[in-house]
From TrEMBL:
CDD domains, sorted: DHQase_I
Name of the top EC class for this enzyme: lyase
Binding-site residues for 3-dehydroquinate, renumbered to this chain: 49-51, 85, 216, 235, 239
Protein known as: 3-dehydroquinate dehydratase
Pathway: Metabolic intermediate biosynthesis; chorismate biosynthesis; chorismate from D-erythrose 4-phosphate and phosphoenolpyruvate: step 3/7
UniProt GO BP: 3,4-dihydroxybenzoate biosynthetic process; amino acid biosynthetic process; aromatic amino acid family biosynthetic process; chorismate biosynthetic process
Enzyme Commission number, as recorded: 4.2.1.10
Described function: Involved in the third step of the chorismate pathway, which leads to the biosynthesis of aromatic amino acids. Catalyzes the cis-dehydration of 3-dehydroquinate (DHQ) and introduces the first double bond of the aromatic ring to yield 3-dehydroshikimate.
Subunit: Homodimer.
Protein family according to the UniProt entry: Belongs to the type-I 3-dehydroquinase family.
GO molecular function: 3-dehydroquinate dehydratase activity
Keywords: Amino-acid biosynthesis, Aromatic amino acid biosynthesis, Lyase, Schiff base
Length: 257
């Protein structure tokens, strides 16, 4: 059995067993983003995700860099994850080719404003390798991710996605899938539990929607390092407001100690 190595981002340990609560930012303009970010920071999340696929000026690199700088100015030392979720995996429609997206991700990595970047495992291996190389050089951690907003694929596929992320060289592996039944939720947790014992990188495993909400509260008990919570508005179904989520996690931790 390999022991998972926690990733240390600006002093925050991700994958140490203590769940990291992340608030996603989903505003469209710089002004709104700054407001949303101030509110998010006041709720003391462990991590902030900028879901840049919601940003209306994503086509303009200068605007993206300005927004990233403003967000960094607000978050201080809170780890910042940069995500352009594709429409294929539940993101917003973005009129950019994959090559343009990769160029944008690489440019943002080089600014030093972000700490982690999410990139989907479904992309070409060459592009993934490009993002990994640039991120590594810039000191940015890479989360290789897989999402399915329709269903929960069978267990072997879930486990494969997590393994594949590690094999490709990710610093973290992530899956978020939609359950149709309680059995699907158990399948996701089982995949996390099985994989955490063999992976050497932290993993994130989420079952979405109402049925999957329990995984946002208790996923850490099965090896999931990060849980996404609502700051102001949800970025995916089943997310829980951060104060409620934190209280529930604390209760669970107290009971299980
Ligand atoms: O991929 C994820 C996880 C997520 O989809 C969720 O279900 O909480 C929310 C997204 O913002 C994030 O990028």
């Amino acid at each position: 059995m390999t022991r998972t190595k926690a990733v240390n981002v600006r002093g925050t340990e991700i994958g140490s067993g203590q769940p990291i609560i992340c608030i996603p930012l989903i505003s469209q303009s710089v002004d709104q983003l700054v407001k949303e970010c101030k509110q998010a920071v006041s709720k003391k999340p462990d991590m902030i995700e900028w879901r840049a696929d919601f940003f209306s000026e994503l086509a303009n690199l200068e605007s993206v860099i300005v927004a990233a700088r403003m967000i960094r100015g607000e978050v201080g030392e809170i780890p910042l994850l940069f995500t352009i979720r594709s429409i294929h995996e539940g993101g917003q429609p973005v009129e950019r080719s994959e090559e343009e997206i990769v160029n944008l991700i690489n440019a943002i990595c080089r600014t030093g404003y972000i700490d982690l970047v999410d990139y989907e495992i479904r992309n070409d291996q060459q592009r993934i390798e490009g993002v990994l190389a640039t991120a590594k050089q810039a000191g940015v951690y890479v989360v290789l991710s897989y999402h399915n907003f329709e269903k929960t694929p069978e267990s072997s596929i879930l486990i494969d996605k997590l393994r594949q992320a590690e094999q490709l060289g990710a610093d973290m592996a992530k899956i978020a899938v939609m359950p149709q039944s309680n059995a699907d939720v158990l399948q996701l947790l089982q995949a996390a539990q099985t994989t955490q014992e063999e992976l050497s990188i932290p993993l994130i495993a989420i079952s979405m929607g109402g049925l999957g909400a329990i995984t946002r509260v208790a996923g850490w008990m099965f090896g999931s390092a990060v849980t996404f919570a609502i700051g102001n508005e949800e970025s995916a179904p089943g997310q829980i407001p951060i104060a409620d989520l934190r209280a529930m996690i604390t209760q669970l931790q107290n009971a299980s100690n």
